[in-house]
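Hi R.,

As promised, here are both runs. First protein below:
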Amino acid sequence: MSTNDNNGSDGGEKRTPKLNERILSSLSKRTVAAHPWHDLEIGPEAPKVFNVVIEITKGSKVKYELDKKTGMIKVDRILYSSVVYPHNYGFIPRTLCEDNDPLDVLVLMQEPVLPGCFLRARAIGLMPMIDQVMHPLFISKVSNSAVSGKECGIKSII
């Protein structure tokens, strides 16, 4: 095989790697993606304002969850009823509950947010949630106060 792509002439030009060589080269380079549970910080203003990684979008019939090994958001199941998630649902990074999962958060906001993204939120309430074990569920809203300086509480929502 010739070392250049100019029909056998050796004018000293470097050859352009073929597509399959570029693909193999990129596959051989190891890259590690950030893990949303372990690598994302809780946030510099925690516990007042904290980061939340969204797993399930508001209005969705698809239940997603974090794959603990890869850090990817995976489909857990499809809800086959008229039930949808009323708000965005996610977790607080670098937390751990009795069920060995991160702390769950229901984020009250008007718009759906894509699974896998994170946002800053403020806790406005707490309620027990029964899954396989009983653990707390934070009820929070997106923290606009960090931008606008306006404080919002549970009374402004109900």
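And here is the second one, sequence first, then its structure tokens:
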Amino acid sequence: MFSEESSIPKNTSSRFSSATVHTYASRCYFSSL
């Protein structure tokens, strides 16, 4: 029970961080153009 609850926030945070990195990378790419 606790393992499932603790794995959900980790998955959400990893998705959020990956989305942030993707947005940051696209910003650097468009700014370099």
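A quick note on the second one: The first helix runs from residue 2 to 32. Let me know what you think.

Best,
J.
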